[in-house]
Structure formats: C-alpha cells, structure tokens
Amino acid sequence: YALLILCFLLIIALYFVYRQQxxxxxxxxPSTSSPGNGTVxxxxxxxxxxxxxxxIIFRLKNNGDIVSINQAGVKLLGIPKEELVGKNxxxxxxxxxxxxxxxxxSKEYSQRDLILIDRKKQRVYLEMSLRRERVEGKTRSVEVIxxxxxxxxWLEAQLRQNERLHAMGLLAGG
Length: 174
Prior knowledge:
Elements lengths: L1 H24 L2 E2 L10 E2 H10 L4 E6 L4 E4 L1 H7 L3 H4 L13 H6 L5 E9 L5 E13 L2 E11 L1 H24 L1
Parallel strand pairs: 1-2
Antiparallel strand pairs: 3-4, 3-7, 5-6, 6-7
C-alpha cells in the first residue's frame, strides 16, 4: 500500500515539473515581445494561425484592393503573394462584382459565393464569409474567410448530369 502512495506522489511531482517546464518554454505575453527573448506574443500566434490556416483568408480595402492574403490563398491561385497584394480583387475575377461584394448588404457579416480565376485561367469556386469593417456607416475594409468548393461544385454538376441522363433513359425506354 505504501508503494502505491509513493508512485502516486511521484506521478504528481512529475506532472508539476513538466507543467513548469512547458510554461517556461511557451511563455505567452499580451502582445509585447521582442525577438529573441523566448516569448511568443498573442499577435504573433494569431498571425501564424491566419497564415497557416487551411481556409483562404484575406483583407480588402474599400476599393477592392487586396491588403493581405494567407498562404492558402496564394497556393490556391498559384500566384505569388507579392503579385496579389496591392492588386484589385476584380483582376482575379471572372465577372467584375467586387464593388458589390464590398458595398452590398446592410449586415456587418454576410455569406456569398465567389468565382476567382487562378494562374492557369481555371475557375476557382469559393464559399465565403465576410465581415465589413465600417467607420461612420461607410465600409472601410472587408475581411474574408473562404473555402475552396471547386471540386464539390464539379461533383454536383456531374450528379445533375447523371440524373438528367437517367431520366432521359427512362423516358426513352418507355
């Protein structure tokens, strides 16, 4: 019985030592960290989260110019970040409707579909959620989180086509 208590105390001691070590290694401060001091700021963590997200995340000015875009967006379009930032989103759209995306809607948050054109001139279908940042009632910028649904759209089109062919086969068969 004494051996069981000793093991239990040892496990508790190891837990606290491990916890102290992890806390020391990952010391998080509010947002004031300097390079090389071993701390990770909340801002840095947030930036890293956005940059490495699997969804496309970008921000637009009120005129549609791209302010920032994460790696998922760069990879999806096949266009270097330097060529995207500063350009108007309409340059990567099949139809020019970025103005309506920014100005339309009285809601701060909304959802819609968007078709972009990648470097290979292929359509990329996105479902996106956007948040309009307003100052004195006017849109100042738009933050967008988008998911690539190109493959899903293609599969849905194939399914509709197969259903039409099946229906025509049934009609032809009598």
